[in-house]
Amino acid sequence: MQTSFPTPTQIAPDVWLIDLLEQGQPFRTGAYVICDTYPILIETGAANSHAALLAGLNAIGLRPTDLAYVAVTHVHLDHAGGAGQFMAKAPQAKLLVHPRGARHMADPSRLFQGASDVYGKRILELFGPVQPVASEQIQIQEHESVISIGKRELTFFDTPGHANHHFSIVDPVSDIIVAGDAAGLRFRNEFTGFSFDFIMPSTSPVDFDPDAVSRTMALFRQLPANTILHTHFGATPKAEALDETERLCRAFAAIVNRRYDEDESVAGLAAELSDLMEQRLKELGHREFNLNRIADDFAINAMGLLHYELRRRRKLHAEASGQTSTDGGAGGPSTN
Protein backbone atom coordinates (compact mmCIF):
# COMPACT_ATOMS: atom_id res chain seq x y z
CA MET A 1 0.00 0.00 0.00
CA GLN A 2 1.53 3.29 -1.12
CA THR A 3 1.61 6.15 1.39
CA SER A 4 0.01 9.41 0.29
CA PHE A 5 2.14 12.48 0.96
CA PRO A 6 0.97 16.11 1.27
CA THR A 7 1.50 18.46 -1.66
CA PRO A 8 4.25 21.03 -0.96
CA THR A 9 3.05 24.57 -0.21
CA GLN A 10 4.50 27.58 -2.01
CA ILE A 11 5.45 30.15 0.66
CA ALA A 12 6.90 32.75 -1.71
CA PRO A 13 8.14 32.74 -5.31
CA ASP A 14 10.62 29.84 -5.56
CA VAL A 15 10.20 28.97 -1.84
CA TRP A 16 8.44 25.75 -0.88
CA LEU A 17 7.39 24.08 2.38
CA ILE A 18 7.47 20.27 2.43
CA ASP A 19 5.43 18.57 5.16
CA LEU A 20 7.70 15.87 6.62
CA LEU A 21 4.87 14.00 8.36
CA GLU A 22 6.92 13.63 11.54
CA GLN A 23 5.59 10.62 13.46
CA GLY A 24 2.84 10.39 10.84
CA GLN A 25 1.40 13.77 11.83
CA PRO A 26 0.81 16.46 9.19
CA PHE A 27 1.42 20.16 9.93
CA ARG A 28 3.99 19.28 12.60
CA THR A 29 7.44 19.51 10.99
CA GLY A 30 8.54 20.90 7.66
CA ALA A 31 11.51 21.38 5.38
CA TYR A 32 12.02 24.38 3.11
CA VAL A 33 13.36 24.47 -0.42
CA ILE A 34 14.61 27.64 -2.11
CA CYS A 35 14.78 27.08 -5.85
CA ASP A 36 17.45 29.11 -7.60
CA THR A 37 20.44 28.39 -9.82
CA TYR A 38 21.87 26.35 -6.95
CA PRO A 39 18.87 24.96 -5.04
CA ILE A 40 19.04 24.59 -1.26
CA LEU A 41 17.06 22.32 1.08
CA ILE A 42 16.73 23.55 4.66
CA GLU A 43 16.13 20.74 7.20
CA THR A 44 16.07 17.04 6.42
CA GLY A 45 13.88 16.07 9.35
CA ALA A 46 14.30 12.77 11.14
CA ALA A 47 15.26 9.57 9.36
CA ASN A 48 11.64 8.44 9.62
CA SER A 49 10.66 11.43 7.45
CA HIS A 50 12.95 10.42 4.59
CA ALA A 51 10.19 9.11 2.30
CA ALA A 52 8.06 12.23 2.82
CA LEU A 53 11.06 14.44 2.05
CA LEU A 54 11.85 12.61 -1.19
CA ALA A 55 8.20 12.74 -2.24
CA GLY A 56 8.03 16.46 -1.54
CA LEU A 57 11.16 17.18 -3.56
CA ASN A 58 9.82 15.11 -6.42
CA ALA A 59 6.56 17.08 -6.39
CA ILE A 60 8.56 20.29 -6.75
CA GLY A 61 10.50 18.73 -9.61
CA LEU A 62 13.77 18.08 -7.81
CA ARG A 63 15.89 15.05 -6.98
CA PRO A 64 18.51 14.92 -4.22
CA THR A 65 21.18 15.08 -6.95
CA ASP A 66 19.79 18.47 -8.10
CA LEU A 67 20.62 20.19 -4.82
CA ALA A 68 23.76 22.27 -4.31
CA TYR A 69 23.24 22.70 -0.58
CA VAL A 70 21.44 21.11 2.34
CA ALA A 71 21.26 23.12 5.57
CA VAL A 72 20.16 22.10 9.05
CA THR A 73 19.28 24.95 11.41
CA HIS A 74 20.46 22.85 14.35
CA VAL A 75 21.23 19.20 14.96
CA HIS A 76 18.26 18.00 17.02
CA LEU A 77 16.96 14.79 15.48
CA ASP A 78 13.68 16.20 14.18
CA HIS A 79 15.70 18.68 12.13
CA ALA A 80 18.86 16.77 11.20
CA GLY A 81 18.43 13.14 12.22
CA GLY A 82 17.92 12.14 8.59
CA ALA A 83 20.87 14.16 7.25
CA GLY A 84 23.22 11.20 6.87
CA GLN A 85 20.63 9.13 5.04
CA PHE A 86 19.74 12.02 2.74
CA MET A 87 23.29 13.21 2.02
CA ALA A 88 24.21 9.72 0.84
CA LYS A 89 21.68 10.32 -1.97
CA ALA A 90 23.11 13.79 -2.68
CA PRO A 91 26.89 13.23 -2.88
CA GLN A 92 27.40 16.48 -4.81
CA ALA A 93 25.78 18.63 -2.11
CA LYS A 94 27.33 20.35 0.89
CA LEU A 95 25.70 20.04 4.30
CA LEU A 96 25.69 23.50 5.90
CA VAL A 97 25.81 23.32 9.68
CA HIS A 98 26.55 25.48 12.73
CA PRO A 99 30.14 25.27 14.04
CA ARG A 100 28.92 23.64 17.26
CA GLY A 101 26.91 21.04 15.38
CA ALA A 102 29.36 19.90 12.71
CA ARG A 103 31.07 17.17 14.73
CA HIS A 104 27.69 15.67 15.62
CA MET A 105 26.87 15.26 11.95
CA ALA A 106 30.15 13.43 11.33
CA ASP A 107 29.68 11.30 14.46
CA PRO A 108 26.08 11.37 15.72
CA SER A 109 26.61 8.89 18.57
CA ARG A 110 26.49 11.48 21.35
CA LEU A 111 23.53 13.21 19.74
CA PHE A 112 21.62 9.95 19.56
CA GLN A 113 22.50 9.08 23.15
CA GLY A 114 21.29 12.46 24.38
CA ALA A 115 17.96 11.93 22.67
CA SER A 116 17.75 8.38 24.01
CA ASP A 117 18.15 9.75 27.54
CA VAL A 118 14.89 11.63 27.04
CA TYR A 119 12.86 9.26 24.85
CA GLY A 120 14.21 5.91 25.99
CA LYS A 121 13.27 2.84 24.01
CA ARG A 122 10.88 4.86 21.82
CA ILE A 123 13.76 6.69 20.12
CA LEU A 124 13.85 4.52 16.99
CA GLU A 125 10.07 4.45 16.71
CA LEU A 126 9.88 8.24 16.95
CA PHE A 127 12.87 9.32 14.87
CA GLY A 128 14.58 6.33 13.28
CA PRO A 129 18.31 5.54 13.11
CA VAL A 130 20.93 8.25 12.68
CA GLN A 131 23.68 7.87 10.10
CA PRO A 132 26.87 9.94 9.89
CA VAL A 133 27.50 12.45 7.12
CA ALA A 134 30.75 12.09 5.16
CA SER A 135 33.20 14.66 6.50
CA GLU A 136 34.00 16.00 3.03
CA GLN A 137 30.34 16.98 2.59
CA ILE A 138 30.17 19.05 5.79
CA GLN A 139 30.58 22.82 5.47
CA ILE A 140 30.56 25.01 8.58
CA GLN A 141 28.68 28.29 8.35
CA GLU A 142 29.95 30.97 10.71
CA HIS A 143 27.96 33.94 12.00
CA GLU A 144 27.20 36.40 9.16
CA SER A 145 28.66 34.09 6.51
CA VAL A 146 27.08 34.32 3.06
CA ILE A 147 26.48 31.90 0.20
CA SER A 148 25.24 32.76 -3.28
CA ILE A 149 22.66 30.43 -4.81
CA GLY A 150 22.01 32.47 -7.95
CA LYS A 151 19.98 35.66 -7.77
CA ARG A 152 19.95 35.31 -3.99
CA GLU A 153 22.60 35.69 -1.34
CA LEU A 154 21.68 33.85 1.86
CA THR A 155 23.18 35.07 5.14
CA PHE A 156 23.63 32.81 8.16
CA PHE A 157 23.29 34.15 11.71
CA ASP A 158 24.15 32.51 15.01
CA THR A 159 20.82 32.40 16.87
CA PRO A 160 21.13 30.67 20.27
CA GLY A 161 18.47 30.44 22.95
CA HIS A 162 16.74 27.24 21.89
CA ALA A 163 20.06 25.53 21.14
CA ASN A 164 23.70 26.64 21.19
CA HIS A 165 24.23 25.01 17.80
CA HIS A 166 21.49 26.95 16.00
CA PHE A 167 21.72 29.25 13.02
CA SER A 168 19.01 31.02 11.04
CA ILE A 169 19.09 31.95 7.37
CA VAL A 170 17.98 35.25 5.85
CA ASP A 171 16.76 35.47 2.25
CA PRO A 172 16.10 39.17 1.56
CA VAL A 173 14.79 38.46 -1.94
CA SER A 174 11.93 36.40 -0.48
CA ASP A 175 11.67 38.59 2.67
CA ILE A 176 12.06 35.55 4.92
CA ILE A 177 14.06 34.34 7.90
CA VAL A 178 14.25 30.55 8.04
CA ALA A 179 14.44 30.38 11.81
CA GLY A 180 14.22 26.71 12.76
CA ASP A 181 13.06 26.77 16.38
CA ALA A 182 14.80 30.03 17.33
CA ALA A 183 11.63 32.15 17.10
CA GLY A 184 9.20 29.70 18.64
CA LEU A 185 6.92 27.08 17.18
CA ARG A 186 3.75 27.83 15.23
CA PHE A 187 1.08 25.38 16.31
CA ARG A 188 -1.21 25.14 13.31
CA ASN A 189 -4.93 24.70 13.74
CA GLU A 190 -4.74 21.74 11.36
CA PHE A 191 -2.40 20.03 13.84
CA THR A 192 -4.13 20.93 17.12
CA GLY A 193 -7.73 20.82 15.97
CA PHE A 194 -8.27 24.32 17.40
CA SER A 195 -9.84 27.13 15.37
CA PHE A 196 -6.66 29.23 15.47
CA ASP A 197 -2.87 29.08 15.18
CA PHE A 198 -0.61 30.19 18.03
CA ILE A 199 3.05 30.66 18.91
CA MET A 200 4.77 28.89 21.80
CA PRO A 201 8.52 28.60 22.40
CA SER A 202 10.39 25.34 22.68
CA THR A 203 12.52 25.21 25.84
CA SER A 204 13.65 21.62 25.34
CA PRO A 205 16.93 20.33 26.85
CA VAL A 206 19.80 20.97 27.01
CA ASP A 207 20.67 24.51 25.91
CA PHE A 208 17.61 26.67 26.61
CA ASP A 209 18.64 30.13 27.78
CA PRO A 210 16.07 32.96 28.04
CA ASP A 211 18.76 35.65 27.96
CA ALA A 212 20.09 34.22 24.70
CA VAL A 213 16.52 34.11 23.38
CA SER A 214 16.17 37.84 24.05
CA ARG A 215 19.45 38.58 22.26
CA THR A 216 18.33 36.50 19.29
CA MET A 217 14.96 38.27 19.15
CA ALA A 218 16.81 41.62 19.16
CA LEU A 219 18.96 40.41 16.26
CA PHE A 220 15.92 39.23 14.29
CA ARG A 221 14.26 42.64 14.74
CA GLN A 222 17.23 44.26 13.02
CA LEU A 223 17.31 41.91 10.04
CA PRO A 224 15.86 42.96 6.66
CA ALA A 225 13.05 40.42 6.42
CA ASN A 226 9.50 40.45 7.73
CA THR A 227 8.39 36.81 7.79
CA ILE A 228 9.57 34.00 10.07
CA LEU A 229 9.55 30.47 8.68
CA HIS A 230 9.29 27.93 11.50
CA THR A 231 10.31 24.31 11.07
CA HIS A 232 7.26 23.63 13.25
CA PHE A 233 5.34 24.82 11.18
CA GLY A 234 4.97 27.44 8.47
CA ALA A 235 5.07 31.23 8.26
CA THR A 236 4.37 33.94 10.84
CA PRO A 237 4.71 37.75 10.63
CA LYS A 238 8.01 38.55 12.30
CA ALA A 239 6.69 40.85 15.02
CA GLU A 240 4.13 38.30 16.23
CA ALA A 241 6.63 35.44 16.37
CA LEU A 242 9.29 37.44 18.20
CA ASP A 243 6.99 39.13 20.69
CA GLU A 244 5.21 35.93 21.71
CA THR A 245 8.41 33.88 21.88
CA GLU A 246 10.21 36.39 24.09
CA ARG A 247 7.20 37.01 26.34
CA LEU A 248 6.58 33.31 26.96
CA CYS A 249 10.24 32.36 27.40
CA ARG A 250 10.51 34.94 30.18
CA ALA A 251 7.28 33.74 31.77
CA PHE A 252 8.32 30.08 31.58
CA ALA A 253 11.73 30.85 33.11
CA ALA A 254 10.09 32.81 35.94
CA ILE A 255 7.88 29.84 36.77
CA VAL A 256 10.75 27.37 37.07
CA ASN A 257 12.79 29.87 39.07
CA ARG A 258 9.94 30.29 41.55
CA ARG A 259 8.91 26.67 41.97
CA TYR A 260 12.26 24.86 41.61
CA ASP A 261 12.94 24.47 45.32
CA GLU A 262 9.45 23.25 46.21
CA ASP A 263 8.80 20.93 43.28
CA GLU A 264 11.33 19.71 40.71
CA SER A 265 8.93 17.28 39.03
CA VAL A 266 8.44 17.42 35.28
CA ALA A 267 4.72 16.71 35.62
CA GLY A 268 4.14 19.53 38.10
CA LEU A 269 6.03 22.08 36.06
CA ALA A 270 4.39 20.96 32.81
CA ALA A 271 0.95 21.47 34.35
CA GLU A 272 1.83 25.02 35.38
CA LEU A 273 3.22 25.79 31.92
CA SER A 274 -0.04 24.56 30.43
CA ASP A 275 -2.02 26.78 32.82
CA LEU A 276 0.06 29.80 31.82
CA MET A 277 -0.41 29.04 28.13
CA GLU A 278 -4.16 28.66 28.63
CA GLN A 279 -4.24 32.07 30.29
CA ARG A 280 -2.26 33.64 27.45
CA LEU A 281 -4.52 32.17 24.76
CA LYS A 282 -7.58 33.52 26.59
CA GLU A 283 -5.90 36.95 26.73
CA LEU A 284 -5.60 36.72 22.95
CA GLY A 285 -9.35 36.12 22.71
CA HIS A 286 -9.45 32.35 22.27
CA ARG A 287 -11.93 30.25 24.23
CA GLU A 288 -12.48 26.81 22.70
CA PHE A 289 -9.35 24.66 23.04
CA ASN A 290 -7.92 21.75 25.01
CA LEU A 291 -4.17 21.93 25.60
CA ASN A 292 -4.01 18.23 26.46
CA ARG A 293 -3.54 17.83 22.70
CA ILE A 294 0.04 19.11 23.11
CA ALA A 295 0.80 17.69 26.57
CA ASP A 296 4.04 16.13 25.32
CA ASP A 297 5.32 19.57 24.31
CA PHE A 298 4.76 20.90 27.82
CA ALA A 299 6.60 17.90 29.29
CA ILE A 300 9.61 18.42 27.01
CA ASN A 301 9.59 22.14 27.78
CA ALA A 302 9.51 21.34 31.49
CA MET A 303 12.55 19.05 31.16
CA GLY A 304 14.50 21.80 29.44
CA LEU A 305 13.48 24.43 31.97
CA LEU A 306 14.54 22.25 34.90
CA HIS A 307 17.90 21.66 33.22
CA TYR A 308 18.25 25.42 32.62
CA GLU A 309 17.45 26.28 36.23
CA LEU A 310 19.89 23.69 37.60
CA ARG A 311 22.60 25.03 35.28
CA ARG A 312 21.83 28.62 36.27
CA ARG A 313 22.06 27.86 39.98
CA ARG A 314 25.29 25.92 39.58
CA LYS A 315 26.77 28.86 37.70
CA LEU A 316 25.74 31.28 40.44
CA HIS A 317 27.23 28.99 43.07
CA ALA A 318 30.47 28.66 41.10
CA GLU A 319 30.73 32.42 40.69
CA ALA A 320 30.09 32.97 44.38
CA SER A 321 32.86 30.52 45.29
CA GLY A 322 35.30 31.92 42.73
CA GLN A 323 35.12 28.91 40.41
CA THR A 324 34.37 28.80 36.69
CA SER A 325 31.49 26.93 35.12
CA THR A 326 31.21 25.46 31.65
CA ASP A 327 28.13 23.95 30.14
CA GLY A 328 26.17 23.50 26.95
CA GLY A 329 26.60 21.35 23.90
CA ALA A 330 24.76 19.67 21.11
CA GLY A 331 24.09 16.32 22.66
CA GLY A 332 20.58 17.08 23.82
CA PRO A 333 17.24 15.63 22.82
CA SER A 334 15.92 15.52 19.36
CA THR A 335 12.65 17.31 19.24
CA ASN A 336 11.62 20.92 18.75
TrEMBL record:
Signal peptide start-end: none
Stretch list, region Disordered: 317-336
A GO MF term: hydrolase activity
Residue span(s) of domain Metallo-beta-lactamase: 28-232
InterPro entries to which the protein is assigned, alphabetical: Metallo-B-lactamas, NDM-1-like, RibonucZ/Hydroxyglut_hydro, ST1585_MBL-fold
CDD domains per record: ST1585-like_MBL-fold
Keywords: Hydrolase
Organism classification: Bacteria, Bacillati, Bacillota, Bacilli, Bacillales
Pfam families linked to this entry: Lactamase_B
Alphabetical list of SMART domains matching this protein: Lactamase_B
Source organism superkingdom: Bacteria
The keyword Glycoprotein appears for this protein: no
SUPFAM superfamilies: Metallo-hydrolase/oxidoreductase
Protein name: Glyoxylase-like metal-dependent hydrolase (Beta-lactamase superfamily II)
Keyword Hydrolase: yes
